[in-house]
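Example 3.2
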Amino acid sequence: MLYSLAKYLDTEFDLPGAGMFQYLSFRATAAIIIALLIGMLFGGKIIRLISRKQIGEEIRDLGLAGQLEKRGTPTMGGLLIIASILIPVLLVGDLSNVYTQLMIGSTIWLGLLGFADDYIKVFRKDKNGLKGVFKIIGQVGLGIIIGTTMWLHPDIVMKEIPSGINHNSEVIAQSNAEMPADQIRTVIDSDKAAKTTIPFVKGNEFDYGCIVGEKDDNGIATWLLYMLVAIFVITAVSNSANLTDGIDGLATGVSVPIVLVLGAFAWLSGNIIYAGYLNFMYIPGSGELLVYAAAMAGALMGFLWYNCFPAQVFMGDTGSLTIGGVIAVFALLIRKELLLPILCGIFLAESVSVIMQRSYFKYTKKRYGEGRRIFLMSPLHHHYQKQGMHESKIVVRSILVGILLAAFTLLTLKVR
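Structure, written as C-alpha cells:
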C-alpha cells in the first residue's frame, strides 16, 4: 500500500523521499525492521492474551528432561509470525507483482491449515489434531495452485541472456532500467518451460519436459509432472519443518539463514545484470521476493525473542506448517527447489531420522518379533536430548550447521 502510494506521489507530485520506495534495498530493509518490531513489541501482549484465553500446549510425557515443565505454555504463536510477515509485505511490497501475490496467498493458505490443526488440539482437546489426510489435501491443493499458476500466468517467464552479451554491456544496463518490453525481447529470449536449477553443474538449467519427451512442446504431460514436483516439494518441506519444531527455538532459528539465502537468490535472479554475470536464469519480477524474504526473516527473529529457551510461546502447527510451506513455494518460484536438500539440511535430517526409525522398527519387528531402534528417539533432536545434551546447545549447534549449509548453498552460484 505504501509502495503504491509513494509511486503515485512521486509520479504526480514529485514528493521528496517518495522515490526511495522504488529501490528494493530500501523496501527490504524497511520490511525486516517493521517485522522485527512487530514481533518484539507486540509479542508480549499477544502472549498475555493467549494465556488469558488459556490456549496452552498439551505436552506428552516422552521422558525428556524438563519436558513436563512446558505444559501450559501458550501456543498458536504462529499467528504472530504470519502477522509479522504479512503486514510489512502489504505495506512496502509491490502487490501487483504475481510472485508477491503467490507468497501472500500461500502464507494465508498454510496458516489456515495449521490453525485448524492447533484449534482441534487446543479447543477440542484432541491431541491428534487435524487428520493427516486433510493436511495432505491442503498441501496438495496448494501444490496444484502453485504449479498451475506458474505454468499459465503470462508474467511468470524465464529469460535466457545470450552468451554474446556480458554484464557490462550497455544494452543490458538499459534493459534493466525499465526498457520497453518489445525492446527487451530483442535482447533476451523468453521461455515458459518448466525449468529448474541443478546445483554444481555447468550449464545448470534442467527442463522437466525432457523426462516426458516434451522438451520443445511443453504440453500437458510436462505440466502434470511439474505439478507433482510442486506438490512433493511443498508437502515434504512443510512436514519436515513441522517435525523440526520440537524444542525451543529450533525451527525458528534454523529457518532464518534459509530465508535469507532464498532472498539473495531471488534478488540475483530478478536482476538481469547479476544473472548475466553469474550465468544463471533471469526471472523478471522475482527480485520483488526479496521484500517478502526480509519480512519473513524479521518475523522469525522477532518471534525467536520469545521462543528461545525457555520458550514463552510455541508457534504450533500454525507456524511450523506455514514456515516450511512458504520456504518450499519460495524455492519453486525462483526455480531453486533442487537446492533445498542442501539449504534445508536440518529439516531433511529431522524427517529422515523419523523415516529411518519407523522403517527399521517395523522391519525388525516383522523379522525378529521385536522392534529395534536406530536412534534413542526420533526426530533427531530428541535423540540428542536422550544423550543428555541440553536443548539450548542442540539449538545453537543446529543454527550453526544451518549457517554452514546456507553458505555452502551460496557457493553453488560459482562452483559448477
